[in-house]
Specification:
The protein is an alpha/beta fold. Helix 1 packs parallel to helix 2 (56-71). It has 4 helices and 5 strands; from the N terminus they run ββαβαβαβα. The protein has one domain (2-114): STAS domain (Transcription Regulator spoIIAA, 2-Layer Sandwich), CATH 3.30.750.
Length: 115
């Protein structure tokens, strides 16, 4: 798993590449925690365009990040999910907690307004 980030209007945009699986979930959580602690963004957007696969541990990691962001009154969004991941978000009801956007531009616009 590769994680690249940038800041846009105080929103931390994280681009994921590869796989977010059991062996990477702990590292993912730690890296996101470091980013949110250091950069203190008003929102976090995870772009999943180049994420090939995510297992239940990856979804659990996202749930943990959601809980942390919510406790700090901050927004969390994901964008550019492949159809399988989008369906899994809906089935697991994680899509009711985390905002899902088709494009990064749409996500940035909405997160800017919500924050």
């Amino acid at each position: 798993m590769e994680l690249i980030y940038r800041m846009e209007n105080n929103i931390c945009v994280v681009e994921l590449e590869g796989e977010l699986t059991l062996d990477k979930a702990y590292e993912f959580n730690n890296r996101i925690k470091f980013l949110t602690d250091e950069k203190n963004p008003k929102a976090l957007l995870i772009n999943m365009q180049d994420l090939i696969h995510m297992d239940s541990a990856g979804f659990g990691a996202l749930a943990t990040i959601y809980k942390t962001m919510k406790s700090q009154a901050k927004q969390l969004g994901v964008c550019q999910l492949n159809p399988h991941m989008k369906a899994t978000f809906q089935i697991t009801k994680l899509g009711e907690l985390i905002s899902i956007y088709d494009t990064e531009q749409e996500a940035l616009r909405n997160l800017e307004m919500l924050s």
